[in-house]
Each structure stands twice: as C-alpha cells, then as structure tokens.
Amino acid sequence: MNLLAYDQFLRAKAAVAPRTAVQVMPAEISAILKQHQRAAVQWAVDGGRRALFAAFGLGKSVMQIEAVRIGAERACGMGLIVLPLGVRQEFVRDAAMLGVPVKFIRTIEEATDPRGIYLTNYETVRDGKLDPRAFVAVSLDEAAILRGFGGSKTFREFMAKIAGDDRASGVKSAGIPYRFVATATPSPNEYIELLAYAAFLGIMDVGQAKTRFFKRNSEKADQLTLHPHKEREFWLWVASWALFIQKPSDLDPSFSDEGYDLPPLDVRWHEVATDHGAAGVEKDGQARLFRSTSLGLQEAAREKRDSLPTRLAKLMELRAENPDAHRILWHDLESEREALEGAIPGLATVYGSQELDHRESLVIKFSDGEIPELAGKPVMLGSGCNFQRHCHWSIYLGIGFKFADWIQSIHRLYRFMQTHEVRIDLIYTEAERDMRRLLERRWRQHNDMVDKMTQIIREYGLSHASMAGMLARSLGVERVEASGDGYTMVNNDCVLETARMDADSVDLIVTSIPFATQYEYTPSYNDFGHTDNNAHFWQQMDFLIPNLLRVLKPGRVACIHVKDRITPGGINGLGFQTVQPFSDECIAAFQRHGFAFLSRVTIVTDVVRENSQTYRLGWSEQCKDGSRMGNGMPEYVLKFRKPPSDLANGYADIPVAKDKATFTRPRWQFDAHGFWRSSGDRPLAPEMLDGLDQSAIFKLFRRHSLESVYDFRHDVRIAERVAESGWLPSSFMLLQPQSWHPDVWTDITRMRTLNSHQAHKGQEQHLCPLQFDIVERCIEQHCMAGELVLDPFGGIGTVPYMALKMGRCGYASELNPKYFLDAAAYCASVARDQSMPGLFDALEAAAPDLEKAA
C-alpha cells in the first residue's frame, strides 16, 4: 500500500471556513461607520461568505448595507438584502445615513439600476416572485428563517437560488459570490440552526458538520449533543465564519463601549391557577388528582385553551396599572388574538391573513410611536423590528416552547439605545411551571454560548490564520498494543495496522464498518467518519479493503455489517426522504478490490424506533399520504469471499470443516436455506393478551408468530387489542413480525451488546455497537476453533470478546483510545475467565446447594 498517498489523503481532510474574496482596504469602507462596524464589515467582505451575529442595537443593518455595497461593487453587479416583514424602514433610514440609495422591490423588473442595492421580503423570494440569482451580493437579515433546515420550502429555495445547491435537480454551482447572514440571536439550543447557516454559506454540509462535532441520539432525529472533547473545536470553527459581537470592545479593546450599556431589565412572572378538575386520567384509567406540569404539545395546547379566560383577566389587571402606556402584547394563538381584540376595543393587531402592506404599516406606526398598543405573535414580529424608541413594556399573554422566537421578542425592546428600564410581564399557569423552567434554562444556555463566542473573539481577534492554526486536528496515532492469551487489541489506524500484518494470516473478518458520515468516533483525521460524503468515505475505504483482502486466507470470508442511509427531503430536494443504498455501495467497493460477493443476511429492525430516528415512517404522515411512506430499514451482513488459490473446486485453502455429529442436517438446513414451519398450534386469540405486561405480550406474540400459519390481518387485530388495553408503546415496536427464513434475523437482542457493560460501569458508550448475536452466528458458521478472527474497526471489542468466548483468537484495531482501553479490559477479562475459573464462578455453581442447605 502507498502509505504516502494515504498520508496525503488524510491531510487533505483539514478544512476551515474558506476565504473566497480579496482583502478589503480600510479606505473602501464608509467613514460614517463606527469602529466596530468597520472592523466587522472588513472581516465579512474579506471572507466573502460570513455570518454577523451582532447584539441588538450594534448596527447590524448598517453592517449589512455596507458589506453588500462593497461586495456588489467588487463583483460588478446588484446587491440584495432580504428582510422580515416590518423592518424595511430601519434599513431605509440607515441607508440614507450612509448615503447609499436603496430601493424596495418585489419583482426583478423594478431593479432598474444594474449596480443598485435593493431590499425585499422573504416571502417574495420564497414564492418565486424575485429570483436572487440576478444579484452578486445577498444578505439575509434575521436569517433564523433558515432554521427550518430539511423540508421547509424557504430553506430549499434559498439553498438552490443563492447557495447554488439545487437538490431537486441535482445541479450544484458556486452560488452567489458574496453572501451573508445576520441575526442577533442564533439559538444555542438548536445547533441545527448554526449548521443550516454554515450550509447556506457554503462552509460545510450539514451532515458533515453533524458527524464531525456531535454525538447524535441514535433514537431521536436531529437531537444533537456536542462531544465534550470537541466543544472548543466546534466553537472555534463557528468563530471562523460567524462573528459574535456583544460590545464593540469584543473586537478590539481600544474600541469604545460608550452608549452600549443595556438598561435594567425587570422580568415579572405571573402564575395563575390551573383548573385541576379536568386533570384527566392515567393510561390505566386511574383519575389524576392534579394536572401534570410535564406538558407535551397536545397537553400544552389544551392548557392554553382552558386557561385563556384566567390569563386574559390577569393581562387586563396588569394593563390597568397604566392604560395609556405604549405597550406590546404578545400571544401565540389566533383565539388569544380574538380574545384580546374583544377585551380591548380599537387594539391594533397583526396576523398572518392580513394584507402585507397593511400589516407592515401597523408595525411602522407602532415603531414610530403613532400607535400606543400593538398585539402580535413573536413568530411574526419577534425578528428585526426595533420598538425601543417609544416602548419599554411588553406583556406575554402566555408562554410556549419556542425559545428562539421568545428571546427575539424580548429584544425588540431590550436593546442598545433603549433609554428606559424595560419591563417584561409573563403570564403562565400552574401547570406550565416546567415550561417556565425550560425557558429560563435556555436563556442561561444562550448567555453561556454568547460568553464562549465573545471570549474566542477576544482571545484570537479576527485573524483567520491564528484560528486556522487552532483548528488543526490530530493526524496519526501512536500505536499501542494490548495482548494476551488468544487476543491482540491495538490502538491504531486500521489502514496502518492491516498494512503491517502478514499476508494470508486471518481466518475470518467480522466488522461493522462506519456508516460513512453518520458518526465520527474520534477527533482524528484518521477517523473514517470524518469524511465529507459517501464518495469521500469510500475513497478512504479504498486504502483499507485491499489490505483486508491481502491478510485474509484464500477462500475465507469477510462479514461486513452495514445499513442503508436515509437522505432527508431538504437534502435531496424532493421534499420527502429517500434511501441511499449504502449496502450496494459496499458491495461494489469490495468487488472492485477483488472480493467475491457471497450472500446478504437481512436483520430486521424496529420500525417504531427507526421512525424516532428519522421521522420518515410516522403513523400520522402515513394517514395523510401513504404515497410518501417507505418501509423500515433493515441492517445487513454482507458476506464476501477471497478467492481460493485453487479455483478448480472452489474450496478454501484451509476449509472450514465441520463434524456432522454436531453440525446436524437440521442445523444445516437452517444455516443454508429453509423454513421453521408451524407446529399446528391454533392461532393466538387477542383476548389472551388481556392483563399481561409488555414483556409477556412480546414473548407470547413471538411464539404465536413463529408457530402459527401467518395471517396479516389477524396479527393487526392482536396489536389493536393491545393498543386498546393501553399497553402498546410508542417508543418501540412491541409486536414485531417474525421470520422463519434463515437469511432474515428477527431475534437479534438489541440490548445485548458491550454497551450494557459500559453503562453499568458508568463509562462512555459506543455510538453504534454491534450485537453479540450477529458476531456469534458469523464466527460459528465461517471459522473453526483456534482460528483468528479480525475486526479492523474494533470499537469496544465485541468481535475479539466473542471470538475468545467461542474458542477462537481475536485481533482488532481501534482508533479511539477510550474504546481501545475498554476493549483490552474486556478481552483480558474473558481470557482470564477461560484460563482459570474464579471464585465467583464456583460460588455461582454452588448457589443451588447453598440455598437448599440454608
């Protein structure tokens, strides 16, 4: 193997936010801008594609206008700033101050100056009335609208027309050369929002970023948790393309903070009583004494509806303190708006079905102080509007789960240039205490994120070079070996480890390869999960597979565990999820390097758990439109064979011989091909399940499914009866379809992995451990006692652990040092247990006799 080529491949993985523009000279930037604004504009235009996360009142609109102006001049074309409704006047005022003529347009025909700067609303671009591809510099103001990464029409349109990534047609282009996003409050609780910005700016694909920095919840889609060892790296990476500014001095200690002190904030929480008379019942029919404070979406909506009169009475009580005050009333539901209009005659309200110009006119009049009181939803008015000049009091008729909209709405008043103490009144019910705690916790998380980012800027400044140096990841690994009686466990890159192994030295390969960009197990460039896409992953596998072929004995088998991948609708541009045939790509890759494809074993998975992972098989969605539903994704064990030296009869150089006395004809039938037919027992009656718990139901249904003649509708009736009894869980599939077919394994015990031991010991769990059952069957069928089983992706040692327990020898390499240490400990433990029985083994064997004696 060409190790130099492999080293060059790994080094090419290193990437930071690219600089796509020529450096801007200070003289090119308007002298009217303040020091921090000039520095931010220079940094943004130098990068070409950057995010400006400037605190409320720091002049985010001025920065965008100037950045777009300079970008448009350099690219010799028009500039466009896309705005939320109601903020047009803010940009017009700031542009006039800068001496930059701007014009609001809704169609390209209105753009009459080929070098002009134009404003438009998001709705205009989203609905196709204005194609932004006619512009050379574009900025998205309050770009949190991109938060709907995935299936939203807005994200797809903006990715296709501005970022040049049209997933629907499969066409990719360079996109608009100068593009910026700006918002004051990127959500720290929704990492997916930051990743959507990175994708839009062309910094990094969302899937690649997920893999690189996050530990994903394998049972919940897009529930991301930063790896502790990658937290600083993640925020450094974000800081390489996104500028967080809370005060001017964040950018340079010499910049003055005068005028940038926030006024006091008076937050008042008002709890109103909950009607516990409608608390409902538990699953088993037991009446609840109190309404739960752990509200789901349905319970929260019911609580909002039932408590509206009480909450409205509290709001009117607060208004009565100063009826003539300038004030904004926030609400979430249309029924709440209607209640406010009925209680406050003449109240100005904004809502979705209003004519856009009228809605914007009301917002402008309230901002200018012409209207004393305005009611609206945070999701509509919470972004971009500046109400601080005439208003410093807001009342929330209720609270909700959407932190990003909520914090934005608070900062419509609480921002720099606000001269009064800001009063915030929040009304909630007794049953919404947990919701209040959640908002407060997310507020603290938001402040923590801001502190981290401003500290990074203070530490490294705006130097791209210094940040790039800090972002350099580890390359290579110092080889460490732990070995004992029958096993070798190595901390090393599997490509480098297999390259040093002897040819024709391995009897069987059993491994679960990384699923391309799905997971990243270490912060090292050597990690196979640290790849840009599937093609990039298979490029690295091209260095490993030839080594696997070389070390495997002629005629022997490699068992490769894989699973196909799901592509979200927002990525493929189709609006619905599709399947990427990762298993087929695996077959092609192994065949390309000389392996022969032997067979495919199918392992059935839990469709309910899978839906929680991908949201692609939902019951509700199936009822809405069955045409967009696919099926559950099984796992596969793909079996490949290295051709034997003698091709005349096809036998391995060292055949895997079996004794017919132990490997019986019936056993052969199951291993080769065949069915386990019914014993003739009568079908299981649904009423037999009444009163049984879930464990008993599962076992009984499995026996029924395997022993009875299959009747699809009968089994559905059983499941419906279980649901009626309240025992059908929503988190996993209780009544799984069973199979007699030997190539479809439905009895794999999902919890039977070394992660069970890891969790018990409080240690780090492997991201996707291989089940014991899979390893057992592969080892038993394809190698003999005393032979060597290799796993190039050893993880926490499942394969060598099981090889030792089954009388074979184990060899595995693992890049993650923590996994390696755990794997070495497991192997050492089982080696000791087999060579010398311990005290606890003797006590366990003697336990029945001891109990009788007692």
Automatic annotation (TrEMBL):
Keywords: Methyltransferase, Transferase. GO terms for biological process: methylation. One of its GO terms (molecular function) is methyltransferase activity. Residues 506-821 form the DNA methylase N-4/N-6 domain. InterPro entries: DNA_methylase_N4/N6, P-loop_NTPase, RM_Methyltransferase, SAM-dependent_MTases_sf. This is DNA methylase N-4. It comes from Luteimonas fraxinea.
